[in-house]
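the two lines:
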Amino acid sequence: MSRYAIGLDYGTNSCRSLLVDLDTGEELGSIVFPYPSGTLGILTDPTDPNVARQNPRDYLDGMVAIITGAIGQARATRPGFDPAEVIGIGVDTTGSTPIPIDAEGTPLALKPEFAGNLNAYVWLWKDHTAHAEAAAITGTAARMRPQYLAKCGGIYSSEWWWSKIWRCLKVDPGVFAAASSWVEHCDWIPAVLTGTTRPDQIKRGVCAAGHKAIYAEEWGGLPDAEFLAALDPALMDLRSRLYDKAWTSDTKAGDLTPEWAETLGLKPGIPVAVGAFDAHMGAVGAGVRPGTLVKILGTSTCDITVLPNEAGLADVPGLCGVVDGSVLPGHYGIEAGQSAVGDIFLWFVNHLVPDSYGVTVGEKFTEMERRLSALRPGESGLLALDWNNGNRTVLVDVRLTGLILGQTLHTEAHEIYRALIEATAFGALTIIRRMEEYGITIDRVVNTGGLAVKNATLMQIYADILGKPLQVAASEQTCALGAALFGAVCGGTVTLGEVQENCCRMREREYAPIPGNEAVYREIYALYRTLHDGFGIEGSDCELSQVMKDLIAIRQRQRS
Amino acid sequence: MSRYAIGLDYGTNSCRSLLVDLDTGEELGSIVFPYPSGTLGILTDPTDPNVARQNPRDYLDGMVAIITGAIGQARATRPGFDPAEVIGIGVDTTGSTPIPIDAEGTPLALKPEFAGNLNAYVWLWKDHTAHAEAAAITGTAARMRPQYLAKCGGIYSSEWWWSKIWRCLKVDPGVFAAASSWVEHCDWIPAVLTGTTRPDQIKRGVCAAGHKAIYAEEWGGLPDAEFLAALDPALMDLRSRLYDKAWTSDTKAGDLTPEWAETLGLKPGIPVAVGAFDAHMGAVGAGVRPGTLVKILGTSTCDITVLPNEAGLADVPGLCGVVDGSVLPGHYGIEAGQSAVGDIFLWFVNHLVPDSYGVTVGEKFTEMERRLSALRPGESGLLALDWNNGNRTVLVDVRLTGLILGQTLHTEAHEIYRALIEATAFGALTIIRRMEEYGITIDRVVNTGGLAVKNATLMQIYADILGKPLQVAASEQTCALGAALFGAVCGGTVTLGEVQENCCRMREREYAPIPGNEAVYREIYALYRTLHDGFGIEGSDCELSQVMKDLIAIRQRQRS
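prediction for all of em together
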């Protein structure tokens, strides 16, 4: 008899499923469902570019489509496949993506009286309307509860839970008043599948709670009433309609209802795991464990590792995402990231690469990679900072911008592209060094995401700069895979270690640092740090006058 | 009766003439002669990209063509024009461009035994073979004669007189031994026209001598024998075959010989002025006087002003070209410059501007200028350093490189182009401020060169950043005009002031600073200086961490 699990991964523009064989790791079905509402699934407001909302209807329609579709594929792939052998379901989503719900757990957006009122819809992670509220929360916490800020890197973001809910209260008190409670997208989907959508029933995940809602056991759950009252008494009032405890994803959110089982073609009563965010589930799907850093390399990056609770962990400056249990139960989940990686390359190719490299974006990238792979480290004399979208880890500062230095009258686009790749790798190294300074040893780096799979040139540069061998996860759906593994585990019949061992495969091609390159990059990284600290850290003492000269010296050496 | 003068301007790839009416300033004839030898007039060595030589034959052929051609044009333009009313000839050339000559003043290159030996040809200003010799001269001077370095900004260049001659001695002792003497291009042409080419007859110009050959009256002319012997005894020996005194260009080099008068169709015996470099003559042609800065805006810039000798002048740090009489007699000639201006824009358009702006370089510039002229100062949030080709004034450091800062994920090419224009203007302002700090007041800025004439957008940005009204010289041949004016003056019948007043016209369009823009640029210039000093000056104490944030604050203000 086989054992399968299904993972559901809700992204920004679409959701997708993965049906996996828990003994072999074979992926039998995977369906993508693009959200039909709005533009690429996002509801926008022409008068305010900061607005980004979603329609919860898309989530439900997508859920049915991707589960039944994956089952159909599995039947086609494996004769004799029996959906009754699916032993659990797991869910991950974007976040913080809060939804206002009524007393039954129905999103207000689905109720006729709120039709077309975007404030009643889902507040997508990338909604940036709440910057004033974020600043006020940061200011109030700095004054009253500095411990709240320590856990999130010193700044509470406009993308997060309380900012958005408070924003709703301010701009649309009617919606706020109509909401019995609010729920993260990743908590609502398991609640729907298990018929536990009443606010007092929903099992909230610690991942979303800890990262976005200032939840921690050490201060008794959510922020205390006095603090919330200082923001607005209505938020204090809301607190009692939220939750006291949040759960790890090896916990069962509930059992699949007979109705949903029928609709989806699954066995009723199978367990559905407590939900979590996509990156965290992706790390699990990529085989995260102590000593392993999982890097999700996309338009931005998310870097995740874990540390057993018994190892103990001080607050790490600039590491804004340390939450107990957010990735693996019994471990601190440690999350870092770079605000823009692939986005920097896309910006560059779209705005600054002439057609002599090719006409389409793809052609330009291909030709630039061909030419830059012939360069030696340091040969261009260029050095860049990867801050076009600010710096998340370790500086936690959105008011930083990009920098390119070392240009001559002969500098070409592919040299700058290489310098930008190197800059993102130096940024990645800065994160790893910060972890290691605080006792979080990294001996293995597993990469996932589009760039890891498609860009071998980039991967080799990363290996040379990080000075560590790099692996690439075999699955193209590590997030859905991680969700599926928790779906399997939450029933209590298998362990996470066992299914990770079976399912988290690596690609054959690994990237080992080339010793000569590594040595040159160590020199250049010292210069990167001079710029990084100088521009990024107030009051840092930096001697800049040798930076350009040292780069020229390295350039001359590398060209000869 | 009319009075005319002819100016000859020898550039890098061609020479040109100007025949001017000294009473009206009317330009009656101007001919361009592209040098026929080599590639665009330059003889190169495929095994060494630093080699750049010229054929002196081109200078003679060109001289005849451009003088007779200009006379022909004047006859056509003005019925009754009489070449006998040409009262003098003046000459400017590139430099330092030394020529090895025999005892009769014949360039070795024209002698059959040296045919094809590039070391016997003219060593063009941009020949860069002598960098080792330049470094040794700098080192020796630092040890023995620091006063020599003070006058040239602390570094003796590979482009200059002694470096090149010493290089010739090292790589081709046969040529060195065969040379009775060496002569600057600008001194040789007047000597040819006046039949004074014997080394002991040639009247050397103080412009070339002072700027390139370490000549100064205060130490008795050329570098002393002991110093030259420390370089090489053969150079000490050469010293006695050079010159003791150098002359200003209001001095007559000699009288036009009957033979040349016949060949050229001019009156024999008219005076020919002592030669000088093109930029210095160009400043005179643009109307330089105390308080007036002339900026020649091209691929690089040359900034020239003058200060009456009686005003006195200390060494100005970073101002590497102060030579008594190099521009106007009785005045310190003060020369500064930026290593790359138009060259930076050309680099950018050729390497980093996509075809969405246009297909040709011209189309791209036009479209970028259209779009950037709609931006307000600071609106892009970008800041650049204009050091792609090093920094000549005030840092005197070739080991500096370009920098662009402030990029987001939305930064576009025309915004960067504007930042590059602004960077060159900030560099220009830095030069003016340095002058003013040392008592060289600038109350009027006259611009010449391609950028000044063609790029109104750039000129307005310059006016806003320099905070001074800008004029543009009317003549497109200010160098040849300045040479012509000295040709007129050296005969002693007219004064320079008189012919400058008659001939140095300005275009109608002037550029006045826009007060609001000026204020914003003052803020941004403070940030430019932070980067300039930080990256450019050893040991400078700089707080960088506010640079990006201040630019963002300005950007937000300027966008709203």
